């Protein structure tokens, strides 16, 4: 590769690799500029480790003439024989380059390169990409050029690593912030926080369907089982709900012990309250089935569980609430308070799903009128509805 063609690419990266579009578009632009400058590159991979409870890392693979492929890898890969014999394992763990020329017998120690060899690849090099925090990420460079990469090609690859690492780290930090916010406050709230809504008092009024649920008998469960077992049970129990909530357009805002608060935004301009509430009810029924099917082994027996969920629809105040520099992005308002009161009524009635009169009017279903109930903090008694299909269960 001609070094004179490399400097404009270095300058472009140092300036932030300003490319309209996604991270994949930026990677494609880097590779195409390098090829145009004379680097005989046929395939490029970049592997970024992530700060995520389930995902070990993300990868982007560029092939000449094709779109960039993106993927994620979970932590289970670390235990696989493929990873143990991968060049990238050495890069991640030792932070050194690993080269595999196809005409070098030593390259046979990496089964991954057998596939490369079958595709006509002549040379492969994996290069560490250290971030400023000390973490090591990786890139891989592949060519079909007869004789493999030249010394000048390798030198050019090494020269580009520092500015490429800085740009990649900036993008990675932004994505890490997004993922952490999604994980801890939800994607809708996370987007608002990243958009600058970080001051106390930043809030909006939103119409939404409200979900408030609670695990029955949790106090007694916590008293008789080890804390570690209780945490594991809660994780499985919340899995039964979160999957259904997110799958039907909801956002989990908060876990409160064994309680869960979620919202399903309603577009007031479209007027889709009926459609949204129908999805909420479907999520509640799916969650009910999942919780009923949950059987957790404790010693020689299996623990079974029941929960209650109250559904309401109304206006909420959605935004930053807290004291000092410790804020919470959540929702408050009479509608949330009513949902919390209804959930307690569900427990008294032995019902899994109860809804407010407003929710029942918005969602056409075979409802059973359960009567009017005085609600603390509300001047009028509230009418409560349950599913006609549901048989009440009196908790012992």
TrEMBL record:
Gene3D superfamilies noted in UniProt: Nucleotide cyclase
Residues in Guanylate cyclase domain copies: 209-343
CDD domains: CHD
UniProt-listed PROSITE patterns: GUANYLATE_CYCLASE_2
UniProt name for this protein: Adenylate/guanylate cyclase domain-containing protein
Origin organism lineage: Bacteria, Pseudomonadati, Pseudomonadota, Alphaproteobacteria, Hyphomicrobiales
